[in-house]
Design brief:
Length: 431
């Protein structure tokens, strides 16, 4: 295998339209007529690395019209944002009767006799193809699509078929190796996240003194706790619990006070004030009620991040929460970071999940008030908070380094595809 990077001799570049075949709809329908049941591909069945889930089928009469039609050997490319930018696309293969149907949000490309299907796929997976296409999208925000003319006019190096196939073999092997490393690194990130959760859960339910005598908490899902600790509801260790006002989202703009929303809570118990939006705030009772102070704990109570928790260690300037957040002001009985860690722990998150069991969406303020935590004396809380910070910082540093490695590997993957499909890699086959 040769992986030496070098400049390829000059090759003719052609627009993709001259390398594709036109297959009429009637021809595809004739192929479909071989079976009453056909392969069906919704967008979620198409991966971002060329994967295909072909387990779904439909009756031919149900999909004969109004859907994309493709046959084995075709290449499909997602046309709508953000699926296009994310790289969704694949080579069609192993369909029932050699043909299938799918979402209308696909461009279907049929390679001509001088174009290898896998090589065509790699062209459409190249960074240049994706960023150029994204720049030419048309349509309303959130519904933008890549025009067909962009794809058909995209310039492709017209390499001999043998060299295309050699490039495909090279990329298949090299990308499989890279993807394997990325998968292993991603697994490490997941393990680090699980270990982080375990450290927090153990610290806020068992403490950090292995010699501490234990007693039954009286709660089967909690088990034993240190003998001198208490089980308390959040409402008994809080000065007050409230949520942000309705209607303020309409005031969001470039000026005003910081307006903290669900997306401003990260996964490390922090509020990201630096990227928060701003809103015009009236000096009234609503503002006074929802203004953040140092030491406040914030819980997301609606939306995709329901149950996420952050601690406002230091509020840099006047800031207010929106209606999707619950503001908990801890009393003197509990350290803010201890309370935040307790709510973020697996025990706290389990209770949030139980409150939402069934058809209920989100949490109420009463739900947050009723959450149970295990409360040690203040000196132990302090020691536990220090322990959690020290141990999780170690894990977070390893995770950050691993994620940087993953990002570099993905950049390497994209660079390999770009170099290969433009003839800049010698794969041992003469042009």
């Amino acid at each position: 295998m040769s992986t030496v990077m070098q400049t390829s001799p000059a090759c003719q570049t052609k627009r993709l339209r001259f390398l594709l075949d036109r297959v009429s709809s009637s021809e595809r329908q004739l192929l479909a007529a071989r079976s009453s049941t056909v392969t069906f591909l919704p967008m979620e069945a198409i991966g971002e690395r060329g994967e295909l889930d072909q387990s779904a089928t439909r009756e031919l009469e149900d999909v004969r019209t109004g859907y994309s039609v493709f046959k084995d050997g075709d290449v499909v490319v997602a046309k709508i944002t953000p699926c296009f930018e994310n790289g969704k696309g694949a080579v069609i293969h192993s369909t029932l009767s050699g043909i299938g149907f799918g979402t209308t949000e696909l461009h279907v490309l049929t390679p001509g006799p001088g174009l290898d299907s896998r090589f065509l796929y790699y062209v459409t997976a190249s960074p240049e193809f994706r960023w150029r296409g994204a720049a030419l999208m048309t349509g309303a925000a959130g519904q933008q699509r890549v025009p067909e003319d962009f794809i058909r006019d995209f310039p492709v190096l017209a390499l001999p078929l043998a060299r295309q196939q050699a490039i495909v073999r090279f990329l298949d092997q090299e990308l499989s190796r890279l993807d394997g490393v990325v998968a292993a690194k991603s697994w490490q990130v997941e393990l680090l996240a699980e270990k982080r959760k375990a450290i927090i859960a153990s610290a806020v339910t068992r403490g950090i003194d292995p010699r501490a005598k234990l007693r039954d908490s009286g709660l089967p899902w909690l088990g034993e706790i240190p003998r001198h600790w208490e089980v308390r509801r959040v409402k008994t260790v809080s000065e007050f619990i409230t949520s942000g006002p309705r209607g303020w989202s309409e005031r969001v703009g470039d000026d005003g006070s910081l307006f903290i929303q669900s997306g401003d809570l990260n996964d490390l118990l922090q509020v990201e004030f630096g990227t928060a939006k701003r809103a015009r705030v009236d000096d009234d009772a609503e503002a006074a009620r929802t203004k953040l102070e140092n030491g406040d704990v914030v819980v997301c109570i609606t939306g995709a991040k329901t149950g996420n928790v952050a601690v406002c260690v230091e509020v840099p300037e006047p800031a207010y929460v929106n209606q999707h957040l619950c503001l908990v002001r801890p009393s003197s009985a509990v350290l803010p970071s201890y309370l935040g860690s307790s709510l973020k722990s697996s025990v706290g998150q389990m209770q949030f999940a139980l409150f939402q069991y069934g058809l209920k969406q989100g949490l109420s303020l009463e739900n947050v008030r009723e959450v149970l935590i295990v409360l040690p004396p203040l000196d132990e809380q302090y020691a536990i908070v220090v322990h959690i910070a020290r141990e999780t910082t170690k894990l977070d540093n390893v995770r950050a380094a691993t994620e940087r490695t993953i990002a570099l590997l993905k950049e390497r993957r994209a660079a390999l595809i770009a170099a290969a499909v433009t003839g800049q890699i010698d794969v041992g086959v003469a042009a």
